Amino acid sequence: MQYTDYTRAAEHLRPLLPLDAYPVAIVLGSGLGELGDKLGIRIAIPYADIPGFAQSGAPGHKGMLLAGTLGGRPVLCMQGRLHRYEGHEFAQVTFPVRVLRLLGVQTLIVTNAAGGINTGYAIGDIMIINDHINLMGGNPLVGLHEPAFGERFFDMGTAYTPALRRLAHDRAAALGMSLREGVYVAVTGPSYETPAEIRAFRALGADAVGMSTVPEVITARHCGMDVLGLSLITNMAAGVTDAVLTCEEVIDIGRARAREMEALVTEIVKEL
Ligand code: HPA
Question: Helix (H, G, I), strand (E, B), or coil: what is residue 139?
């Protein structure tokens, strides 16, 4: 990807967007895409119509960029994300993040479905990501350095913006919800993990596991965005219980808990 690929996509999108400024964007994870249907004054642009965007083929991911309002605030929403396991290169997975940046997005809220590694967690819990471990075997910033977006080497000491984490706890408390906070480990997938891998990840300090988010977060932090990451624990990870992991379960729990996640994200966005 070259800088002009990102600017071409942004220039294509700008005239299609109803408002001049969108300070917040939300990436919707597996089973959480319905939040996009709740946006006010909403327009939907298929990824297929945006130059440089790859197609989202994962189950529960529609592949639409939405522009609308949530809690009265303008937001852009990626209804469907791109995954490395679909065969997309990291540069394709993270392409939309840089385009969002060029469109003026300052805060990126990333949601995902994740498996619970922490044995104190339960299915349906929502975890604020406070740090991550990248075991995807690659970094989206490998390759030609693009100085227009950020420094070659940059700090990841607070990848998940502390003020946004505090805001999430605060808004959850106002809704009578309590959130977990922990470390997300990202793997490539698409196979779910083995019990031995999950034991290893627990020993490394991970609380939840998933197949996304980390590439987008690295890219967003690189170009100076603030990041909030929210994981919905859709299942306990392999070996934590005897349950067999299925994709249907992940999507069903996502849908079942979508209301809580929607309410939380809406309350957070109102304060941004
Ligand atoms: N492992 C990896 N990714 C996931 C899981 C899991 O258990 N649940 C939801 N996404």
Answer: coil
Q: Name the residue of 85, 132, 188, 250 whose CB sits within 8 Å of the most ligand 1 atoms, as the mutation to test its pocket.
A: 250
List the chain pLDDT tens, one digit each, 272 residues: 899 999 999 999 999 999 889 999 999 987 677 788 888 878 999 999 999 998 876 666 678 999 999 999 999 999 988 899 988 999 999 999 999 999 999 999 999 999 999 999 999 999 999 999 999 999 999 998 989 999 999 999 999 999 999 999 999 999 999 999 999 999 999 999 999 999 999 999 999 999 999 999 999 999 999 999 999 999 999 988 887 777 777 777 777 788 889 899 999 999 99
In the block, tokens 């030609």 appear at 144
Element (H, E) at 24: strand 24-28
- The ligand 1 site (C-beta within 6 Å) comprises 113-115, 192-193, 209-211, 234-235, 237, 245, 250
**Rounded CA gap, 204 and 120, in Å?**
16
